Amino acid sequence: MKPRPLDRLADAHALPVDKERYFSAEHEEIEAGLTTDIYFVKTRDVLEADGRLEVPVVAEIFARKGGVFAGLPEVVRLLDGHGVEVHSLGEGDSFEAKEVLMRISGPYAAFGMYETVILGMLASSTGWATAARECVKAAGGKPVLSFGARHVHPAVAPVMERAAVVAGGCAGASCILGAKLAGIEPKGTIPHAAILIAGDTVRLAKIYDEVLEEGEPRLILVDTFKDEAEESLRVAEALGEKLSGVRLDTPSERGGVSPDLVREVRYRLDIAGFGHVSIVASGGLNPEAISRLAEAGVDSFGVGSYIAHATPRDMTMDIKAVDGQPVAKRGRFPGITENPRLARVL
């Protein structure tokens, strides 16, 4: 049943919750204000008693650290129909510390209760987009795919993958829903589990080739049973021109994917006549490692934990005008902060 929007503190206290459920909030619960901080609901009671709940205000949002802005469409969807005007940077825009990222104008009653939600949406997506952009820059034009879904709660995995692609610049994502929301098809190879169960990399590669539809890249993991260079040659000889690439995902227990390993695999493939076979690297990569591996010959990258574990960009919302008059808390400047980069989005 769709929850009734919170209007006052008593509504929150009376809210029934089924504890035998998934713990993530449903969209209707977010829109109803159930994920906001309780003090914003208390504020409604106080301001209504003072006759000031509907007063027109202007609020500005900024971050204390620079980054890549993301999460805008969710905020617009949340506020659409609430009678507010929103100006904002665009998704994917880089910004500086304390630059005004978004400005919301309208009756406080229309959006005040959503402050927690708005800041959370922007903080998380911006953090993921910023980390993704760092990886993309380090790759120097070589594709980076976001493989981070396994590192976060499934309720937010699509949000993360979408931000990494749309705002961060990743060329693809493995999370099905995340990729679809970004307007692309999901990308990925096969897990070690498939090779372990099949018992042999080449055997699995042949079945993979037979079963998969045309147009699906034949990209095979080569670090499961044998030396990576040896396994790469075995797979290349088995699939020939059909093999589009090999993926190196060597675990840290074996030294990880190193530049020297990449150079050896590339050299052995080339001298054996398999220069068309690309090399994909994954496994605990960060921008520094990506830069080294790109120089060594890796053609594309799969990045998971670095993007998924990115620190959210702390966001702050300040009321800067009340009923047309400039205001601000101590330490801030009263009145609207001009930013010509903002454009009206709602």
Task: Please provide a written account of the structure.
- This protein is α/β, with parallel strands linked by helices.
- The chain is 38% helix and 17% strand.
- It is built from 14 helices and 14 strands.
- It has helices spanning 9-13, 27-31, 38-49, 72-79, 108-111, 115-139, 157-166, 176-181, 192-198, 201-211, 228-239, 259-271, 287-296, 305-308, and strands spanning 56-63, 67-68, 85-88, 94-95, 100-107, 144-146, 172-173, 218-221, 243-248, 278-282, 300-303, 315-322, 325-326, 343-344.
- The strands form 3 sheets. Strands 13-12-1-5-3-14 form a 6-stranded antiparallel beta sheet.
- Strand 10 (278-282), helix 13 (287-296) and strand 11 form a beta-alpha-beta unit.
- The longest helix is centred in the middle third of the chain and has 25 residues, at 115-139.
- The chain starts with 8 loop residues before the first helix and ends with a strand.
- The mean pLDDT is 95.
Tags for this model:
346 residues; alpha/beta; six-stranded antiparallel beta sheet; 38% helix
Secondary-structure blueprint:
Elements: H1 9-13, H2 27-31, H3 38-49, E1 56-63, E2 67-68, H4 72-79, E3 85-88, E4 94-95, E5 100-107, H5 108-111, H6 115-139, E6 144-146, H7 157-166, E7 172-173, H8 176-181, H9 192-198, H10 201-211, E8 218-221, H11 228-239, E9 243-248, H12 259-271, E10 278-282, H13 287-296, E11 300-303, H14 305-308, E12 315-322, E13 325-326, E14 343-344
Parallel strand pairs: 6-7, 6-11, 8-9, 9-10, 10-11
Antiparallel strand pairs: 1-5, 1-12, 2-4, 3-5, 3-14, 12-13
